[in-house]
Amino acid sequence: MYQNFVEMLINSSVDGILAFDRECRYTVWNPAMEQLSGVSREEVLGKCAFEVFPFLKETGEDHYFHGALDGKSLTATDRAFVIPQTGRTGFFEGRYSPLHNDAGEIVGGLGIIRDITERKRAEEERALRIQEQAARSEAEAVERRFLEELRESEKRFRQLAENIDEIFWLADPNTSQVIYVSPAYEKIWGRTRESLYEDPNSFLEAVHPDDRARVVAAIPKEVQGNYSEQYRVVRPDGSIRWVSAKAFPIRDKSGAVSRVAGIADDITERKLTEAGLHEQREVIETVNRIGGILSAELDPQKLVQAVTDAATELIGAHFGSFFYNVLNESGASYMLYTLSGVPREAFAHFPMPRATDLFGPTFSGEGVLRIDDVKRDPRYGKNSPYYGMPEGHLPVTSYLAVPVISRSGEVIGGLFFGHPEP
């Protein structure tokens, strides 16, 4: 019983676990190691580690194997690998320690391997953001010094401003008249500089309607030197750009504000990157949450419901369902289901799906079926008695079906998702 419990822990571990004897032949290779390396346990068990993975010696990783056999506990951190068998690359962290028999003799070694690729990428992204922030702060300091010199040499300012990607502008604090705006205004706003000279408030026409009130409310802060806003600009062609704008006063020798200066930068790409990272974090959090449920929940109905809910959420479907096979006492097969996004009553009066031209490929495990508009598919409406969707059926236009297959190759059932729009 104890041995079975240990095997269960090893096989269910999210970390890769391996063991080897004194000849460095693998004796344990858990499912997580199969996933990390792309190499099955049948390919490695009983074989020398350095024969299966020659790069271990080439990179000096054999040091950790021999160290464990010498009775040492060693940790390999931030190790970058390329698995030749699969081409998989990434960063891994390994902990190696000796294995003893009942007499205390070292009979082999144990390795616990963790994939830290995502953590490394996150660290690199944080470092990059810090560098960008430092670079931006330095750039802003340079810009401030330059604007101070502007009072003495506007010509020198213009020579620089005409050739940079950021927008520079100067305005009269009393009349709000724009004295100067750099050519980058035309590139980002898609409007001429002359239009801004003629009407200083014309730039507001391009500000996104949802951001305009906030920008207008913040404009008086320019003279106090605490104006800093991010907002969207809608260009004449309908495209949208994100802008980071700052403004501050320039004072004369008496301390009076003689000019208001502003800097605006196109940050569209950064916003898109942030949105992508946010979406990626949400997906990872959902997958991790489902992984926790799968490892802790024993009720199949709850497991099926959790997977259906998560998949429906991740792909943005209007509703999702899971149809699966169950044998009754007489050995007949029938379908049960779980639903997500709609009440169970929505399907209560409809018969269970059959192996029709559209459903058949999923129940036979042929692969994923994704259709932009199911009613335009040649397989739609070919089977009796409905020749399409029954009256009152949930509106389905875009359609996704995924067969769910056990490790033994048996088709357990299928996940089906629908949305009323193509």
Q: State the end-to-end CA separation.
A: 54 Å
Q: Biggest sheet: strands, sense, closure?
A: 5 strands, antiparallel
Portion of residues within helices: 25-40%
**Care to count the β-strands?**
15
Radius of gyration: 32 Å
Order of helices and strands: HEEHHHHHEEEHHEEHHHEEEHHEEHEEE
As laid out across the biggest beta sheet, the strand order is 2-1-5-4-3
Mean pLDDT: 79
Shape: flat
Topology:
Blueprint (H helix, E strand, L loop, with lengths): L1 H11 L3 E6 L4 E4 L1 H7 L3 H4 L4 H4 L2 H4 L3 H8 L4 E10 L4 E13 L5 E10 L1 H34 L3 H8 L5 E5 L6 E4 L2 H6 L3 H6 L10 H10 L8 E8 L5 E12 L5 E10 L1 H29 L3 H16 L3 E9 L5 E8 L19 H4 L5 E3 L26 E8 L5 E9 L3
Antiparallel strand pairs: 1-2, 1-5, 3-4, 4-5, 6-7, 6-10, 8-9, 9-10, 11-12, 11-15, 13-14, 14-15
Helix pairs in contact: 7-8, 12-13
Would you give an account of this structure?
The protein is built from 14 helices and 15 strands. It has helices at 2-12, 31-37, 41-44, 49-52, 55-58, 62-69, 117-150, 154-161, 184-189, 193-198, 209-218, 268-296, 300-315, 360-363; strands at 16-21, 26-29, 74-83, 88-100, 106-115, 167-171, 178-181, 227-234, 240-251, 257-266, 319-327, 333-340, 369-371, 398-405, 411-419. With 422 residues, it is an alpha+beta fold. 36% of the residues lie in helices and 28% in strands. Helix 7 (117-150) packs antiparallel against helix 8 and helix 12 (268-296) runs antiparallel to helix 13. The protein is flat, with a radius of gyration of 32 Å. The strands form three sheets. The protein has a five-stranded antiparallel β-sheet with strand order 2-1-5-4-3, sandwiched between helices. A five-stranded antiparallel β-sheet has the order 7-6-10-9-8, sandwiched between helices. It has a five-stranded antiparallel β-sheet with strand order 12-11-15-14-13.
